[in-house]
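Serine/threonine protein kinase
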Amino acid sequence: MQWSAPGYTEIRQLGRGGSGRVVLAVHDATGIRVAIKYLSEEWRHDAAALARFQSEARLLVTLRDPNIATMWEYIQDAFGACIVMELVNGVSLRALLRENGPAGPEAALAVLKGSLLGLAKAHDLELVHRDYKPENVLVRDDGVSKLVDFGIAVRDGTAARPEGTPPYMAPELWAGRPATPATDVYAATVVFFECLTGQRPYRSTEPSVLGYQHVHAPVPLHEAPSPVRELVRRGLAKDPAERPGSALAFVGELERAARAAYGEDWEERGRRRLSGLVALLALLLPEGPPPPTPETSTSLARTVFQDLRSTVRRVGRSKAATGAGADAPAAAGPDGWTVDGSPVRRAAGPNVRRVAMGGALATAAAVTAVIVLVSSRPAPEQPIGAAAAVPPSGQLSAPPETPSDAGDQPAGSPQAAVPPETGPPGFPESTGADPAGLPRPSGLDDGRGGPVGRAAGERGRRDQQRRDEKA
């Protein structure tokens, strides 16, 4: 029997790795959905691994940023340990690249900007992520990206053994030098290059050759689109001193290059592109695909026909009350409906059929316009979701301080708040740790007062007048 965090009800498992599992759960007291990251039994009984897990939780308590998945609380007792995280309703960048290939320049820039902003928050606290890769970037259904998994993060300048995922490790890590914020900038640029081209800049499957390429091989700038080549060159510089001074400084360079090449609204288009790619993988979302948009409008044909029937009935009742019906001609339709003695059913039948056909087309066009508007809505300025709410328990909690230094502990933390995924084929996992919107057509209405409804009503009255004159 697996241990479960008290106060939470598990819904289903999102992923499992050698060092733990991640589940979708609900906080019993508030009903808020969360992701819970459990440390495996094997690692929980390893003092060094448990200390690393606690260290990650302590780091996450300090990282409150829209571009980083929020930690709610840490729970540990005699039977287990876990980190309760914000549930990010999205898919990993790795899944997007695997299923769709290159994301395009604007989408790649949007991902890079979000990641750099999240890394900048960590760097402000003198933390280095050290394991930035597509598996650790989640893209929400609105196109906003979030950074996860600080399992092997260390203090800036910490002298620790090299750790990370080889295809994304900076030259200084291969050389055994300490990690700095420039190390994260390098890894983020590798992922940026992969979003642009569908491939990493260095692709050897032999670790020793791969390390040599990162340290000595020239950057394949010709494979990247020309407007962003300077960003790639700066971010992948072999010498950390030649890279941007900080993640935030790199954001400034990125925004200037993006505006010059793709216009002021590049980020909105990039997020819309990412949102569309996520929609193609809706079945992978933790909370499942969004529900279909309910029909909120009445069929035009049904509205006009019902209005006609009600008018006939009102006239019939009025004639019966005043006695005028005795002077009316005896002609009547199949159901006995008459208006001033005219057979409404026979006269209105062809017209109603024409209105019905036009109404069906108008309704289809209106529904299509609504769907396009909903799918192309701009992303919010500030990410929304669980991170904007109060923690399920009402307060943040972290594990007690331990004298262990996370930078000196062996690796082995699981993915944070997301299912662990298989990395690029042929490579080991981390060495230290497990379209534009369209306006709604103004001529479509609910069948009563819009241009379509008025035109249908006028045609009906003219047809009726002509028939009365012939009679």
